[in-house]
Amino acid sequence: MRLVENIKGLFLRYIIVIIVVAALLTLPRWGGKYVVMLVMLMGMYITLGHMWNLLAGYSGLISLGQQMYIGIGGYTLAVASTKLGLPLIVGLLMGGCVSVIISVGLSYLLLRMKGMYFAIATWMFAEAMLLIFASISYLGKGQGLFIVEARKLGTEQIYYFSIVMVIATTIVLVALLRSKLGLGLFAIRDNDSASATSGVPQFKSKLFCMMISSFITGVCGGVFYMSQVWVQPYASFSISWTVAAVFIVVIGGIGTTAGPIVGGIIYVFLSQYLSTLSQIGSLNMVILGVIAVAVILAAPKGIVGTIQEKAGFEIISARRWMGKSLARANPPS
After folding, report:
1. Can you give the pTM of this predicted structure?
2. Strands, DSSP E only, in the chain?
3. Which of 309, 304, 323 is closest to 178 using CA atoms?
4. I need a labelling partner for 305 at 20 to 30 A (CA). Which of 94, 122, 136, 265 fits?
């Protein structure tokens, strides 16, 4: 009986995922330009949320410096396409690779820290990057750089960049969490000290997560500034990127796979709506903060986390291999 229920649940998940993916891939054919733009932004912010959730929700690394990789991704794309004449797709991948190199270099300092010390250190490095990029003449100093080749792209083309990125990111994240490394991350998240005594390679696991997070965040930054056509240091290295990621993950559900998806959709809708209210001025971030606090008080595990706890159903499950491992370890008598 339980096997039949599991099969039905799995079948329902696949049906939902197939319908959503089909709708996303065909949206430019039947959706308006504004809807396409909204979903394009959702793809970018969901990707950003996924990567912050990978660090904070599964590795215990509360980063306040994810904007560093957004800026690096945007600038690498601009230099690669405008200065070196390389294709945009090459610039996007280069942005991810440069972000990985920097994250690996910083990890040997950052991973020696925990808690607020790690968070503050990541923010300090991001601020240092802002000052460095704003002072280099080759990069346009405070004026930034235009991404000339991006002007040739239409909204629909950039939309597909965003959608392919978020779908690929979700697949990679689920595959990672269902792997042996994922089991280690669940152990680190649930009990850091116990996982260390159980033989989980904490440094290696966290380093790998930082590499994945920095690569995809760098690519995400490139895709975003491809849509903007211009990258500028004070915007691309702004801490508002990390604030957005924290909001998305907190209201969606930290440590859940679908949480950043729900949080990203809500964040884009709220941001677009609040930006149309001229009377609130620059208070939109304050309003988003109040909403986040209200969600934390009402549902500490976030929207998705609370629903999963009460309904016992996950649309995107990351624990399948854990269940199989436990089944093998405790076979039925």
Report:
1. 0.90
2. 145-146, 230-231
3. 323
4. 122
